[in-house]
Amino acid sequence: MLSKLAVAEQKKQKISKLIAFFAFVLLPWDFSARGAELQANQVRLELRGGDRLTGAILEETDHAITLLTAFGAQVTIPQEEILKVSWPDPEDDPRPLSLEVADEKEELEVTGELELGAAIVASTTDRQDYLSRLDMTFRRGPDHLRLQGLIDIQRAANRKLRDRQSVAVSLQKELIRPWFATLTTRYLRDPSMGLRRRASGSLQFGRSIFDDDLQRLTFRAGPGYAEEHRSEGSDWRTPLVGWGVDYELNFTGFWERLSLLHEQEGSIDPRGSPLRLLLESETSLRYRLTDDLYLALIGTIEVDSLSPDEAELFDRRLQLMLGFGW
Fold first, then answer.
1. Can you say how many angstroms the Cα of residue 269 is from the centroid of all Cα atoms in its chain?
2. Which range, of 20-24, 68-72, 150-154, 248-252, averages the lowest pLDDT?
3. 8 A C-beta contact, residue 292 and residue 49
4. DSSP E strands: which ranges in the chain?
5. pLDDT (tens digit, 9 = 90+) per residue, 197-244?
6. DSSP code of 91?
7. Please, which contacts does 303-306 make with residues 24 or more away whose CB atoms are closer than 8 Å?
8. Does 109-325 carry CATH code 2.40.160.40?
9. Are the C-beta atoms of 37 and 53 separated by less than 8 Å?
10. Are 42-106 and 109-325 the same fold in CATH?
11. What's this model's pTM, rounded to 2 decimal places?
12. Is the pLDDT of residue 146 over 70?
C-alpha cells in the first residue's frame, strides 16, 4: 500500500515539473510574440492641423483607428481626421510596392493657417496693433514648400505708425536624414517707417534634433544676402550670416489641447561697422477650441539694430490671435 502511494506521489511531482517547464518556456514566448506583433504594427499618423501620432494599431475600422502609444495610452482617431498613414520601416507597409510608389508620387498634402488678431505694444509709445497672417505649406514626403504673408497695421492717436506688408517663400529639402537644406526669399515694405523695400535670400543647412509625437526641435544656419532701400535715399546691400530655430511641444493628458511653439529668425552683417542685427522671435501658447479653430497668445520680440547700443527698432508685443487651420 505504501509503495503505491509513493509511486502516485512521484507521478504528481513529474506532472508538476512538466507544467512548470512549459509555463517557463511558453509564457515568455507568448509575451515576446505579442510585443513583436505590436512592434510590427507601428505606424505614424499625420492629422489635420499638423499633429502627429505614433503607436501600434490595436484596431482599424472604416470609421476610426485605435492606437497604443509609447506612453501606454489607447487613442481612437476618426478616419476623417487622418491625412496620412506611414510606416517607420517600409518593410512593414502592407501595401503593394507598386501601389506605394504610385501613391507617394501623386500625393501632395496642403495645410494652412489663417490668423487674425490684435496686440498691445510696449515700445517708445503705446499703440494698437492689428494683424492678419496667412501661412500655407505644400508637403510631399519630407520636403515642403511654405508660403507666408503678413499685414501689420499700428495706430496711435489716429496716426498710422506702421503699415507693414511682408511675403516669404521657403523650400525645405531633405538631404540625409536628419539633415536638410532650406532656401528662403523674403520681401518686406513699410512706407510709414521709411522702408521702401527690403529683399533678402538665404541658403541654410539644418538638422532635426528630435521629431516625435511630444516635441519637435530643429536648428539651421547659413549664408544670405539682403538689399534695402529707404525713403531718404540710403541703400544697404550686404552678405548675411543667418540662423533659425523651430520648437514645438504638444501637451498630453488633461492639457492635450495646449501646445507651445517657438520660432526664431536672426541674421547679422559680418562685414558691418557698426554691426547690424536683424532678429525676429515669436513664442506662442495655443489652445485648440475645435479640431480646426484655436486661440493663440503670442509674445514677439523684433530687433533691427545698427549697433549693440543703438536700436533702430526694438518692439516687444503681446498678441491675441484667433486662428483657423486646415
1. 29
2. 20-24
3. yes
4. 42-47, 52-60, 64-69, 74-78, 82-86, 109-122, 127-140, 143-156, 159-174, 179-190, 195-211, 215-230, 235-250, 258-268, 277-288, 293-307, 310-325
5. 999 999 999 999 988 878 999 999 999 999 988 887 778 888 999 999
6. G
7. 303/277, 303/278, 303/279, 304/276, 304/277, 304/278, 305/275, 305/276, 305/277, 305/278, 306/274, 306/276
8. yes
9. no
10. no
11. 0.66
12. yes
Place of cell 496686440: 119
| CA distances in angstroms from 81 to 52, 88, 125, 137, 307, listed in the order given | 11, 20, 45, 18, 49
CATH topology of domain 42-106: SH3 type barrels. (2.30.30)
Q: State how far the Cα of 60 lies from the Cα of 298, in Å rounded to an integer.
A: 38
Least confident of 32-41, 157-166, 210-219: 32-41
pLDDT at 19: 52
Question: What are the residue ranges spanned by the domains of the chain?
Answer: 42-106, 109-325
245: β partners: 219, 264
Displacement of CA 77 from its chain's centroid (Å): 20
CA distance 49 to 43: 18
What's residue 10's pLDDT?
61
